[in-house]
Each structure stands twice: as C-alpha cells, then as structure tokens.
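Methods — Computational structure assignment.
A single polypeptide chain was analysed. Its primary sequence is given first, followed by the predicted tertiary structure written as structure tokens.
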Amino acid sequence: MSSTELFADDDILDDDPVDAQGRPLEVLHDREYRVRAFRSAPDRVLIRGGVRDQKPPGLYLDVDPDPLTIHHMQVDIEVAYPSMKIVAAQVHMETHPNIECTRIEPHYEKLVGLSIARGFTHQVRELFGGPRACTHTTALLQAMAPVAIQSMWSLRASDVQRSDSAAERMPTKRSDMWKMNLNSCHVWAEDSDVVARYAAGGTFEVPVFAQERMLELGISEEDWTRRMGS
C-alpha cells in the first residue's frame, strides 16, 4: 500500500470564504506543504517535505485553463536517533522562477551535522535565511523539523508493534521522551503544569486525539497504555 492510501486526502481548510452578498471571494494564491517521515533504518528516519505555490487558472495567462505552479521544492533529510543529528540532506527544485534558483541546492548540504531538535530553527535562519538561500525551501525546512521530533514517538509505536521486547531496545524511554518537547510551545513551557506533572514522575496523559479515537474503537485507556508499551 502506497503512502497516498494511508492518509486522509480531504482539504484541511474550511470552505472558501464569501463576501457580504454570499459570493465566493476571488482566489489569488495557494500554498501547500506536505511532510512525511519514513523509517530508513532501525535508528534512522527519512523526512521528505515539499512546498508548492500555485496561481489559479487564467490569472497569469488569461487563456490558460489550468492552475499554474510557480514554486515546487522538495527536501530530503535523514535523521539519526537518538542523537537527532542530520546525517544526509538533499534539495531538489522541480519548479522555480529563475534559472539561477537551482544553484543554491548544494548549499543545503550544510544541514548535515546539525541537530534537528534544540536550536534548529535558529541555525536554519543563520545558514539559510534571506539572501543566503531560497526563501521557500528554508520555510519548508522549518515546517519539517517538528515532524522529526514527532517521529520519535512513531518509532517507538512501530517497534512495540514489531516485537514485545522492542520497547526495551529503544534508546530513549517513553518516560523521558516528554523532555524533547520542552519549551516547544505554551503547553510544554518549563514552568507549565504539564511539565511539572511529568517532571514529578506523573503518568503519561492520553492525548485528546487518541481519546477520541479510542471512543470510536471501543478501546479503554488501560488497553491503549498497554499497546503503547508504557
């Protein structure tokens, strides 16, 4: 089964807005990000991301019946676990406005050796911000970093399903994995109630999205905890 068959493909945006008379507003631009993570080795994850900008039919060429892609960039980065270091990186610009655009592709090899965890956004800005690289590719990189962090949980879940003893082989214990989220948002602020609970050894809270799916499937919290290897 291909990855395109594994995920929902409906529009993640609400219906297009309308004006005071109920008429659809004119669409001027569409930007789409897509990021996927793949297990490339027992201790490595390949993060593949793409960004695409499109103009609606007829906006640039009045006789053109199809949407016009003006940017399409793809980035592959391979991340080692548990170090969270980037061990390989490749950028490919499939659609771009200027011939010179592709000359910056090799510059992104400087990603190799960086940690995709702490300080990654700042390092990306320093190395690839503004005139130092491609604006659209750099924006894509910043959207890819959180996926690498979330893939740590996915690796554990995958290993637990593969083997009853897999959880013991994971380099990072689940009880410590919350630390990777520290200061990443207001929920995980170092002075938040959530962090205080986990720092004191509190039990892992079932995410809201998992609670909702558990209700749909008739799975108890105890069963979910057992399945996740807590």
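Note: Confidence is low (pLDDT under 50) at residues 166-172.
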